[in-house]
Amino acid sequence: MNIHDSQLLMPGQMIDVQGSADLRQIAIERVGVKGVRAPMRWRLGDGTEQPSVGLFAMDVALPADRKGTHMSRFMALIGEQAAALDMSQLIALHREMVTLLDARRGRIEIAFPLFLRKAAPVSGIESLMDYQVTVVVDGTIDHAVADLTVLVPVTSLCPCSKTISDYGAHNQRSHVTVTVRSSEPLSLEALIATIEAQGSCELWGLLKRVDEKYVTERAYDNPKFVEDLVRDVAARLNEDKRIQRYVVEVENFESIHNHSAWARIESDA
Hints:
The protein is α+β, with helices and mostly antiparallel strands. It has helices at 71-79, 87-100, 159-164, 188-196, 209-220, 226-239; strands at residues 28-43, 49-62, 105-119, 126-140, 144-157, 171-182, 243-253, 260-266.
């Protein structure tokens, strides 16, 4: 359609520039919106909902003969989300997006902090821990895959330092980043708990002195290299038959070096 030909329009009708033809005949793999912040709720495995703020990105494939996509439709989808999100709901949202944009395929990415309440190991005092979560749904309306990524902080204590020292051992905070693709939805909080259990010790937002004693001694009795930590997480993921593929990365922010120790394992599936 020639966008300057007003004779083709009904009275009061506005020109759909995005829907017009493009003569360059170059397809666009991904076009959409990113950096959109919006309030959201994440539904946990027990059915409870945790409020958060999500950073949304949505895009679709654009055919070579179409000038543009309808950006406002992405924003409308984000703004109309009233239900709490989980993996199943995100797959449904992806299907709705691809249909609404009349696209061959599309991608949704949401990054958000998840806050979980944890009880300290001895005193039982409760506090919040935050975990950075990213969920990606990518594919066609008939075949979309969902990848779940979570960053879990833990404590790691150096086995070499413990062995060679007359007393004490250096330890540090470690970030364990796990991405999984599963045959069925996983409980995010259960995955986090599995990862935390592989560290020299877990972290908590608030500790009393009795808890600090426990954490110190627990880490000392459970030393792990970065290689141990990444292997232990991978071994636990291998035991879960629902997990089709995974990537595990561990970064130790070394307390006696001005650099990090790092390891990565990626499943063959």
